[in-house]
Amino acid sequence: MLKKGMRVGFAADHAGFPMKENLKKEFQSLYPDVEVIDYGTDSLASVDYPDFAKKLARAVQSGEVDFGVASCGTSNGITITLNRFKGIRAAIAWDREVASLVRRHNDANILSIPGRFVTLNEGVELMKVFFSTEFEGGRHRRRIDKIDEE
Question: Residue 148: which pLDDT band, with cuts at 50, 70 and 90?
Fold first, then answer.
């Protein structure tokens, strides 16, 4: 699914920071021809997840990046914020099947991983599944087209 020259953005708050850093490192190893852009945070110091979610959402929305990966403690707060933006389909995944389904059925463009409830190794596996799964289209396209409100 990922191609040479694509860009993927990463964002997290303090609770998702260790997950983000591990995912970035593994991503760069797995996909050396895809550019990584980090939208923060850059430490374990307490921050507000909307600040970083908004940067990532705007980047995906504008085409600055092709996909995103996000993390906060539960992934709920960051995902709620991301999904406030038109065209953003951020989805929380906690196991391989969910990571596959959010791509196949929901055409998710941002993967959100709960930093406090998924191990670093599990996070990498979720990311691999997400980025190796194609959107099925068909009946799912019709549903996706009904999401955004004007």
Answer: confident
Residue 65 is given by DSSP the state S
* Catalytic residue status for 105: yes
Classify burial at 131, counting beta carbons within 10 Å of its beta carbon; exposed 0-12, middle 13-18, buried 19 or more. buried
With tokens 């539960």, the residue in question is: 74
DSSP state string for 9-60: EEEE-TTTHHHHHHHHHHHHHH-TTSEEEE-S--SSS---HHHHHHHHHHHH
**Candidate list 54, 104, 105, 128, residue with the active-site label:** 105
Annotated catalytic residue, options 72, 78, 91, 102: 72
Distance CA 21, CA 144 (A): 31
| pTM, full prediction | 0.96
Distance in Å from the first CA to the final CA of the chain = 29
Residue 72 bears catalytic tag: yes
Distances in Å between the Cα of 5 and the Cα atoms of 66, 78, 93, 127 are 10, 27, 26, 18
